[in-house]
Amino acid sequence: MKRFASEGRDRRGRLSGPGWTWMFVLGTSALQTACSDDDAAGGGSYVGSATQTTEPPATTTEVDPTTSSTDSTAPTGTATTDEPTTTTSTTDEPPPALMVDCGMLPKGAQGAEYEHQPTASGGVPKYAWSATGLPDGLTINPNSGEISGIPTTPGEYTVELTVTDLEDNVAMASCPALTVGDQLKVDYDALAADGPCVAAGGDKTILDYITGGDGSPITCSTPAGTGDGKVPMGLGVDGQSCAITGTIGESRYGNWAWIVAAEQSGVKVYAPYCAQQAQQAPKAYAIVGNHSGQMDNALEPMVVDFDPDQPLRLDGDADPRFEVKKGTCGDSCFFGFLYRVSMSPFGTGACKDDKDGCFGLCPLVADANEPDGDKAIQCSLLPLMGTPKTGFAHEMWAKGDVPPEEFKTRPFVVQWSIDYCLSNAAPDCQGKDAILANGDNSSFEFPVIFRPQ
């Protein structure tokens, strides 16, 4: 998140000669009045004084045809004038002292966006700002004083601010320590100790595995791009608590995994979430899976660590391995399957031009005559020896190029969606429509979670 400390600035407009006083002496036999004007534009303080004098009524003496009038008694030899006399005095108030306030510098974090606004007051705007002691990656705007950037090194920093106003007055402030914390991360080892993913129905979220950061609020989202897996119908993730919400509404059997992104101050970290639907259709085939050195764990996601600088590959030599059984298929047993794979960094590179493609369910075996050193072979019927046959076994493999930069430091998901068909009649399991029509709603969802080493 971005944090700001607001700045208030006081700009004053001044008339030339603040504090004027006007005094008028009127050369007339009427009432003499002096007045002051307090309504001048621009504000400020105006101080003045005025004197009001009341003269007795004028007296007329008829001595001769000449008429004289007297405005006031004046000493002999003093002449009177009809022109007004103006007396002006001025006072100047110095501006308030220039001051700078650091405010409370918020905590930062390595790699996270940082913004803070100190404030200045007094003096004569406009202000010029400078700072010393800022962490690498942070700068101060010389005009506004805003401190911003992305710090690169954790630590405690002593920052000093300097403000210079238009008349070269200077104010300085030594700020409270600026703390830059470690970069926001997910502790994948701690997550793996609790399970392959943050599971629906559990009491943990990605927030329980986050370390570092700047302490500001974290929000969560479910991106829906390459490598982000699939959120099952009926479920979501709360943006504030990061907890799984809702009830799974899928009818397909298996497990779903998807990626949740947690964001703080422009930094995103990722963790896999998962949920299972353990109820099969009434006539669906039995599906038993083994992977990751464990037995009968088909409903648990598989986790694979990958080298981010090498081409991607999932080929564990029968890890994973799944057995699909109908009960009795017959002495002659035919199988078919359809599968879909979610978008991921797999399916890229040289495998796109290979005859085996980039994904498969039947095993890969080494073959020095093949350009890529291996080839896909047929899946095996079960049991391997004898009749009647009850089903078949399959594996799971995928190939891809070196992952792009964004996946070198974050996990991603490959979600497999499979539909099966078993029959003693070959046409029943040939082609998509036949498989879906004759497979007794035998479906399976299986996610593989990839984590960078």
From TrEMBL:
It comes from Nannocystis exedens. This is Putative Ig domain-containing protein. Transmembrane segments: none annotated. It comes from the Bacteria. Pfam families: He_PIG. Residues 39-101 are annotated as: Disordered. One of its GO terms (molecular function) is calcium ion binding. InterPro entries: Cadherin-like_sf, Ig-like_fold. The lineage of its organism: Bacteria, Pseudomonadati, Myxococcota, Polyangia, Nannocystales. Residues 53-92 have a biased composition (Low complexity). GO terms for cellular component: membrane. SUPFAM superfamilies: Cadherin-like.
